[in-house]
Amino acid sequence: MPAKRTNRTTAVGGGPRKPGRPVGGDAGGRGALLSAARAVFAEKGYESASIKEIVERAGVTPPALYHHFGNKVGIYEAAAADVYDIVIAGFENAIAGKTTLRERFTALIDCSVEMNARDPMLARFIVSAPFVVPRHPELRRLAPQLNRTQRFFAQLVIDTDELAVPTADFVNCANSMLWGLTRLAATVRSPDDYAGAVETLHRLIDNSLFTDPRRRPRLGQQGVRHAG
Q: Matching CATH topology for 22-70 and 80-208?
C-alpha cells in the first residue's frame, strides 16, 4: 500500500511550512510590502508599477499582497496612507515641546530634512500622488489624504496671536513652501543640496538672507568692486 502523501508547501529558504497563511502574510510582511510599494510607485508611477515588482522587492509572494491589500488599488491606497502617517507623525514629534509658532515652523522645516535623508521615496511619492489620484476614479477615496499637511498647518495656527497676516494666508504660504521643498527633495541628487536650500529658507525667516546694503561693495563702471 503506497504511503500517504502529505500536503506541505516549501517556504522561502527551502524549509517546509504549514499550509494556510502565505509567505509574508504576517505584520512584518505587510510592512515590507508597504515600503516596497512606496518605492516602486515613486520610481515607476502608478500605471507602470507592477505587483510582481512590489512583491519581489518586498521578498514575499503575490498571495501575501492579496492577503493584506486585495489588489493594486488596495496597496496604493495603503501606501499613500502610510506615507502621510509617517509625515504627520514626524511633524508632531518635531513640534513637541515647542511653544512659539516660529519655533514650531522652523522645527517642521528641519524635520523635512531628516525625513528626506532617511527615505527619499517619501517626497517622490507625495509629489506624484496629486497627479495620480485625479486620473484614476478607483483611487478617489484617497482625496482626503492629499490635504492632510494643509489641515496640519491649519491646526497649528489655531488661537495664535503671533501672525502678522491672516491665518488662511499663512496656511496657504506654509503649505506652498512645504510643497516646494517636497518637490525639490524629490528631484535633487544630493541630500546636502536639499539641506542647503532649507538653510537658506531659515535665513529668509530670520531676516538674514540678504546682505546689508550699507556694507555691500559697490561696482564701478568696469565691474570693479569699490569699498563703500
A: no
Q: What are the strands, taking DSSP E only, across the chain?
A: 9-10, 16-17, 218-219, 225-226
- CA 29 remoteness from chain centre: 21
Distance CA 189, CA 186 (A): 9
Task: Enter the C-alpha cell of residue 147.
Answer: 490635504
Give the CATH fold of the 80-208 domain. Tetracycline Repressor; domain 2 (1.10.357)
Q: Which residues pair with 218 in a beta bridge?
A: 226
Distance of CA 120 to the CA centre of its chain: 8
Greatest distance between any 2 Cα atoms in the chain: 107
Burial of 10: CB neighbours in 10 Å, binned 0-12, 13-18, 19+:
exposed
Grid coordinates in use for 166?
491672516
Compute, in degrees rounded to 10, the torsion defined by CA atoms 75, 81, 82, 88: 170
Q: Which CATH class is domain 22-70?
A: mainly alpha
**What predicted TM-score, i.e. pTM, was given to this entire model?**
0.78
What residue ranges do the domains of the chain occupy? 22-70, 80-208
Q: Give the tens place of pLDDT for each residue, 85-134.
A: 999 999 999 999 999 999 999 999 999 889 988 898 999 999 999 999 99
Distance CA 63, CA 26 (A): 12
Nearest partner of 135 among 45, 43, 33, judged by Cα: 45
Instruction: List the beta bridge partners of residue 17.
Output: 9
Question: Would you put residue 119 in left (φ > 0), alpha (ψ -120 to 50) or beta?
Answer: beta
